[in-house]
Amino acid sequence: MKKEYKILAFLTLSFCLFITSCSLEEEPVSEATPDVIYKTASGIESGVDGTYSLLRDLYGIQSGFTLTTFGTDLFRHGKDGSYKAMDLYTSELNSSMTYINNIWTNCYLGINAANTVLDRIDLVEEISEARKNNV
C-alpha cells in the first residue's frame, strides 16, 4: 500500500513538473495602443467618436441633468427633494457626492481621449488640413 502511494506521488509530481515546463507565451493578434489605432483616418474618427461617447453621462442620464440643471432657474425641486444640496448649495454639496464624482471622472476621461486624438492627428498624412482643423 505504501509503495502504491509512492508511485502515485511520483506520477503526480512528474505530471505537475511536465505541465509547468510548458511554454504559455502568448502572441497578441492585435495591440490596441494609441500608436496603432491613430495611424489612419478611420482611427482618428473612431477616437473622436469615442470621446463623444464619454459625454453620454453628462447629457443622457439623470446625474448629468442633476449637475447641469439643479441650482438654475430651469429647475425647482419637488416635495421629496432628492439632491437638494445641488439646488440649495448647502454644505452637503461637495466632491464626495457620487453624482459629481462620476460626472467629473467621465469628463476627465473625455478630455484625456480628446487630447490623445489631437496629439496624434498631425501624424496621419491621409487627412486634409481642413479636416484636421475641423476635428
User: From the alpha-carbon coordinates, what is the Rg to the nearest angstrom?
Assistant: 28 Å
Largest sheet: none
Task: State the share of residues found in helices, binned by percent.
Answer: 55-70%
Figure out the total of helices: 8
Give start-end ranges of low-pLDDT stretches: none
Distance between the termini: 77 Å
Strand content: under 5%
**Strand-pairing-aware structural class:** mainly alpha
What does the average pLDDT come to? 79
Please tell me about this protein's structure:
By secondary structure, the protein is mostly helical. The protein is built from eight helices and no strands. The longest helix has 23 residues, at 98-120.
In terms of topology, how is this protein built?
Elements: H1 2-20, H2 34-37, H3 41-53, H4 56-59, H5 62-69, H6 84-88, H7 98-120, H8 129-134
Helix pairs in contact: 3-7, 5-7
Summarize the structure.
61% of the residues lie in helices and 0% in strands. It has 135 residues and is mostly helical.
